Amino acid sequence: MAEDNNQSAGSNTQGTASDQQKPQLQFALQRIYVKDISFESPNAPQVFQQPFKPKVGLDLNTTSNQVGDGLYEVVVKVTAQVSHSETGNTSFLVEVEQAGMFRISGIEGEQLEHTLGAFCPNVLFPYARECIDNLVNRGGFPPLMLAPVNFEAMYAQKKQREAQGVGTTQ
Fold first, then answer.
1. Burial 116-135 (b: 16+ CB within 10 A, else e)
2. Cβ(132)–Cβ(144) below 8 Å
3. Where are the domains positioned within the chain?
4. CA 39, CA 54: separation in Å to the nearest integer?
5. What is the residue-level pLDDT of the chain in tens, covering all 170 positions?
6. Nearest to 32 by CA among 146, 121, 138
7. Selection from 76, 92, 63, 90 nearest residue 36 by Cα
8. What phi, psi does 6 have (nearest 5°)?
9. Which of 103, 113, 160, 163 has a CA between 20 and 30 Å from the CA of residue 154?
């Protein structure tokens, strides 16, 4: 009887047909984890015997792939190489791949691409920053506080490069 009531109630509401056609929007963070981590200080202990004058080189990359039905892994890879600004000797090299599993449904095409390329990395980056800061401190160096990153702008630049690449090859 309850099933009959639910079915008849559903048939009386407007928009039910369109609701059945569109999958329900779902976005849920399933897990955050470190996929890969590395810290090297190739010139220790000599690097600690001179004044610390850092020159920071930073590389940032994001990737994503579908690992199940509606389940996506997003990885933010951050590499920071800090060298002495005068001698050029490497003080330390730190690399972190911060990953997350996201359950996403009801989002397709360009919106899904944008979610995986900008929104998810924005969720993961603070964890990568904290991990890097912790590793650098444990390595005996002053904290390396990375500035926030605008993944929206990075995603827009990537899409612009792709559009220019497609336009020049055709």
1. bbbbbbebbbebbbebbeeb
2. yes
3. 23-148
4. 16
5. 444 444 444 444 454 555 556 668 899 999 999 999 999 999 999 999 988 889 999 999 999 999 999 999 999 999 999 999 888 999 999 999 999 999 999 999 999 999 999 999 999 999 999 999 999 999 999 989 899 999 999 999 999 998 888 655 44
6. 121
7. 76
8. -65, -40
9. 103
- Both tokens of 96, joined, read 């972190």
Which helix (H) or strand (E) is 135 found in, with range? Answer: helix 120-138
φ, ψ at 75 (rounded to 5°): -125, 130
Q: Which class is 23-148 in CATH?
A: alpha beta
User: What pLDDT does 16 receive?
Assistant: 52
Place of tokens 């972190």: 96
Number of H helices and E strands in the chain, helices first, is 5, 4
Q: Give the predicted TM-score (pTM) of the model.
A: 0.80
Written as six digits, the tokens of 84 are 């002495």
Residue 126 belongs to what H/E stretch? helix 120-138
- CA 59 vs CA 62, 146, 149: distances in Å: 11, 12, 12
